[in-house]
Design goal:
- The chain is an all-alpha fold and 395 residues long.
- It has a single domain, classed as MFS general substrate transporter like domains (Growth Hormone, Chain: A, Up-down Bundle), CATH 1.20.1250.20.
- Helix content is 82%, strand content 0%.
- It is built from 17 helices and no strands.
- Helix 3 packs antiparallel against helix 16, helix 4 runs antiparallel to helix 6 and helix 13 packs parallel to helix 15.
Length: 395
């Protein structure tokens, strides 16, 4: 009885330190967009090359995600998430030495090796340590982390961190790498492993085959691809889009942080409040409103621009945790296979995550503006809405 109560209390400590690592993930993921302008000038790169850089880690994510999911199921969360955090810290720090496209590309791509261990490991942690209604609450809490970390990167890099580093984008990456390493140390000190519900209940091959046979899992995979196509394609280029609209780099950073601010209450509340049987229809509504937010923010100015960014922030960020919660609550997945399921999810989703920033960069080179790229992302949102409308929860 005493041991059970101790574990019940300690799960919130586990969630808190998982939150730190996921916040570092968000910080690292969004550390480049605020400094795209000086990096393009210093490294003499084109928009297309920068688009490939921004999408490179997602490309690495695709094959690594499956391996990371298996590693998390086999190693346990303590070792796996530590490895992920240290690799992320290294990816940030070595960007200091970049001299051009060829040397920057592998440093950013390295994030695609460490990142999956965090983004897949976090839902694995929740699936093991939390059950029932507390699971939805925990999903809402940990999902705020990458948005708060990203908010700091977008909002504070140009206004606070760049002045502190003498306006050196290289030292910004070193600072963020050091902070990630510090969070890794905190994780290693306080983290504990805990056995899943049915460890070893099925072989890797049979579990993989069973997941792919499930129509709901296939639909969630397709939806994840479209979500990251939209989110990474738009958010990675948003500061530069705003600068091209005549806003200073500092003001662009603050304006680009609007969706992230709106995302924090959305990702915290929506997974908790939406009933299980209504998740498919609510996902469709969120996807439709995502498209509306994209169109408004790309074609309007002044307060309408802010309204479009708020609408985007209230809707798009909640899509991913809702999809992940559907996977967690699927009885045929189970916490023992959540690493594999999460790896499979991100392996497919990051195809969209890679394609989005590259698509935007290529369309800018071809047309001289961002409107075509944003229009294609809005169309993807409508396809997503139609796809998930009939998604139903297992009873």
């Amino acid at each position: 009885m005493t041991e059970g109560l101790r574990l019940q209390s300690y799960r919130w400590v586990i969630l808190a330190i998982t939150w730190l690592l996921y916040a570092a993930f968000g910080l690292n993921m969004r550390s480049i967009p605020p400094v795209v302008t000086p990096m393009l000038a210093d490294l003499k790169m084109s928009y297309g090359e920068m688009g490939l850089i921004l999408g490179s880690w997602q490309l690495v994510y695709i094959p690594v995600s499956i391996i990371a999911g298996i590693a998390i199921d086999r190693w346990g969360i303590r070792k796996a998430l530590l490895a992920g955090a240290l690799i992320m810290a290294l990816s940030e720090g070595v960007r200091y030495f970049a001299t051009g496209f060829a040397t920057l590309l592998p440093t950013v791509a390295l994030f695609g090796i460490g990142g999956p261990l965090i983004s897949i490991g976090a839902p694995k942690v929740v699936s093991i340590w939390f059950k029932g209604n507390d699971r939805a609450t925990a999903v809402g809490i940990y999902t705020t982390a990458p948005w708060i970390g990203g908010l700091f990167a977008i909002g504070a890099t140009n206004s606070l961190v760049m002045p502190l580093t003498g306006y050196s984008w290289r030292l910004v990456f070193v600072l963020y790498g050091g902070l990630t390493a510090l969070f890794a140390l905190v994780w290693w000190i306080f983290a504990r492993d805990r056995q899943a519900e049915n460890p070893g209940a099925s072989s890797l091959k049979s579990a993989f085959a069973r997941l792919l046979r499930m129509s709901k899992v296939r639909m969630v995979l397709f939806a994840g691809l479209l979500v990251l196509l939209i989110d990474h394609g738009y958010s990675h280029w948003l500061p530069k889009m705003l600068e091209n609209g005549g806003i200073s780099s500092q003001a662009a950073g603050f304006t680009a942080s609007v969706p992230l601010i709106a995302a924090i209450p959305a990702v915290f509340l929506i997974p908790r409040l939406v009933p299980r049987h209504s998740r498919g229809r609510f996902l469709a509504l969120l996807a439709f409103l995502t498209s509306a937010g994209l169109v408004i923010s790309a074609t309007a100015s002044s307060w309408l621009l802010i309204a479009g960014l708020v609408l985007y922030g209230l809707t798009t960020p909640a899509l991913l945790p809702m999809l992940m919660l559907i996977l967690m609550d699927e009885p045929q997945v189970g916490s023992e296979n959540m690493g594999l399921a999460g790896g499979l999810f991100f392996a497919v989703a990051e195809i969209g995550g890679f394609s989005g920033p590259l698509l935007m960069g290529v369309t800018v080179d071809a047309t001289g503006g961002f409107l075509l790229g944003v229009s294609l992302l809005a169309a993807a949102g409508l396809i997503l809405a139609a796809s998930v409308f009939f998604l139903r929860e297992s009873r």
